[in-house]
């Protein structure tokens, strides 16, 4: 059947069989309709008036004929606007008040579908996937102190003190895809759950079926849970130390949600006997106030005077009962995907992704809508991108980026061969203190260029972002981690990304309304203005830039002593973009075929750094690192941690990790050499 979206719009008024200009044709009875009487005097006046009109018409007609006979028939084409002019026009159209107006309507996929079609996208698809979701139980999860039989809710209040309005808040605090049931055990303080922390606990205690009290941060949650499971723990209570949280956040009585789903539809990921959980552990997030109570910790204060939470020496450990009652449900999640087709390279795709969870607050959807509106308005004026832009709004993001994983897997073959970049709008305003920029190595230079193009919206006085290649949470993970598509993301946060505060974003708090967090919508406006800047540098035939100052250099130098392979790769990559390759790099001499080949080679460099397996929660893409004082490959960091408490096996693991890294560097070097050969042969053929 015909696509209803592609049918032409019918006129709202009828058109005469004589044609659309029928009413401009002469009506012989027109004069008689408006003559008052057949008086001769009146008729003479009318005839004089008609003669005057005829003479005036002939005069105007003569002027027009003279004008056109002395003017060229072919109208000179309007020169296309350059990127800077187009960017200025887009930024002018994106305003905070427009984003504000969209906030109450941005929650669901079907609305977004109608919005995108109305904004001018002619190729929009609404798809759904039936997936297994882990949802809160009918009653909140509880923690009971067996010594005095006091029952606590996750935020720390007593179970018998909750009001009717507290139940939704308490139900929000759970670990999706945790094991369910009831467990009795002693509380064991393992701090951040590092190998050092666990080794100390193992040396002094029997950890079997005990309940670990763990701080979020410093390492991925799934990595910590894998270690705790190996040591025999039965349950885990998660909390955020107030000393690690942003200075302005009062998190003492706030519980939160986490997901244990690494990505995609969990129904395909666990065995039948697992009962719907992705771990054997009973996992429950709690507030810092409840953690302080269970630890008998004297910690007070926040900021520089803050004393981290911890169980004092010689303190009797509390024995508790942990009850987790999550429920599983098969439900549909929806993705909305729209295409703005490119002209010169329509088979090369730049993806722009956001989410439309009800918890997200609508800010990302508002920014996406404004971006689509601005770009489609430009296409009406004749501008067409060289590459195809794919706008994506994902469902199921909060419980493990389900929508993006499922769509990505369905289209993985095309994406691996044709995707140029992924621009992330995942939770773009999480705070109001720091503008953080994260990009893969091939887009680091472009990300810095964007900052130079845009002045800060707060008077131009704020510092530029600290561009890094840290592994990102959210929907971007599938494209960066599984497909090695170059990625870039800008986001406002409440604190800088440091080693102690890293991975705190794994905790999901009830989202403040964008109006509450950003009442003037200036931070949303800034991110919205960054969006077209990124796209205008990606959708034309612009180049990736793989400069020497990349994580591969820093990471490699901490592992190898200027190895031959590393230096060869960097030298060849530099030569690949040198004056010798000038026809592909000089904007005045760009050849489309050179640009396409060069970009394909540089883009595929990242694919060389995908390794088959990593510790839980760690990217398979080696080029994304974990926060730390010394930049290094993440798999080496965990191999070094493991080596602290074992010798033979862990030494073998370290050697294996080094071998994988060296193999990746050699693979990337061969790819660059292939690109050089391709260019040499192309130039010879051209002669």
From TrEMBL:
The chain crosses the membrane at residues 48-68. Keywords: Membrane, Transmembrane, Transmembrane helix. Gene3D superfamilies: 3.50.30.30, Zn peptidases (3.40.630.10). InterPro entries: PA_dom_sf (IPR046450), Peptidase_M28B (IPR039373), TFR-like_dimer_dom_sf (IPR036757). PANTHER family: INACTIVE N-ACETYLATED-ALPHA-LINKED ACIDIC DIPEPTIDASE-LIKE PROTEIN 2, N-ACETYLATED-ALPHA-LINKED ACIDIC DIPEPTIDASE. This is N-acetylated alpha-linked acidic dipeptidase like 2. The gene is naaladl2.
